[in-house]
Each structure stands twice: as structure tokens, then as C-alpha cells.
Amino acid sequence: MRKVKPARKLGRTAAHRKATLSNLSTQLLVYKRIETTEAKAKETRRVVEKIITKARKGTVHAQREIFKDIRDKQAIRILFEEIVAKVGTRNGGYTRVIKLAPRFGDAAKMAVIELVDYQEAPSASQKAGKQQDRAKRVKGSKKTAEAAVVSAE
Predict the structure, then answer these.
(1) CB-based contacts of 108: which residues, under 8 Å, 6+ apart?
(2) Reported pTM
(3) Of the candidates 129, 102, 112, which has an alpha carbon nearest to the alpha carbon of residue 32?
(4) With the C-alpha atoms ordered 104, 105, 107, 112, is the resulting torsion angle positive or negative?
(5) Mind listing the pLDDT tens digit for each residue in 67-78?
């Protein structure tokens, strides 16, 4: 008998977890790329993969089934018009999760989840830019002193 692997609870009640995953799924469909914690990204991937697979059928019944999970007409429209057109021939694997550096405040594992056919992986220059921004915030760093000298001139 097949045993189903249990989903992550994300430290929430069932209703709160469902709402969180619905909101993350909606934002992913609208913006094509979101940054969140690694656990939420992996759970969102499970939800979105099933939604896109249902949407590929293109029937009214599929729209109504998806509308139970995603209560946003704009996201549904984007899903059926844009996303399904791009991933129509792909057999699963519609999303990718890219791990990022831990969050500065609480050291939570962070990740970016994105739709595969829309965005490329973040480049090294984007990662270097984030490190530079953090260095500017830290008091007493060499980059802060250099930036102050340049701005004074």
C-alpha cells in the first residue's frame, strides 16, 4: 500500500497553513518568482505543481477546481492564458527552488521559488550586490567609510 509523505505543518493551524499556501501560490502565479523560507517554498511547489497540471486540461471544471484553492481572478486568468501556454508540453517540473543565504534577522533558511520557463537562476552579480548592500548597513565597515568619502566629494 502507498504511504503518503506528510506535508510540512509550518508552525500553523490547518486553516492558517491553507491560507498561507494559497497566498504564496497566488503570488507565484502573478509575479512568477517569490522569495520566502525554504520550507514554505517546498510546500508551495507541491501545491503549484498540482494546480498547473489541472490547468493544462483547460476545462471549465478545472477552472472551478483551481478557484477553490486560488481565490484571485487575475491569477487564474494569468494561469490559463500565459502559464499554460508556455508549459503546455512540459510533463511536470514547472517550478524550481533555489536556496539562498540565511535571513539576516533570524538566520532562517531562505529560498527563491520561480516558474521554470520565465526566470533564469540568479546570477553571481546579483548575489554580490546583496552582500555589498549589507556591508553598507554595517557600522564601521570599510565599504561604509569608502561610500561616505565618495558621497562627500
Answers:
(1) 37, 38, 102
(2) 0.74
(3) 112
(4) negative
(5) 999 999 999 999
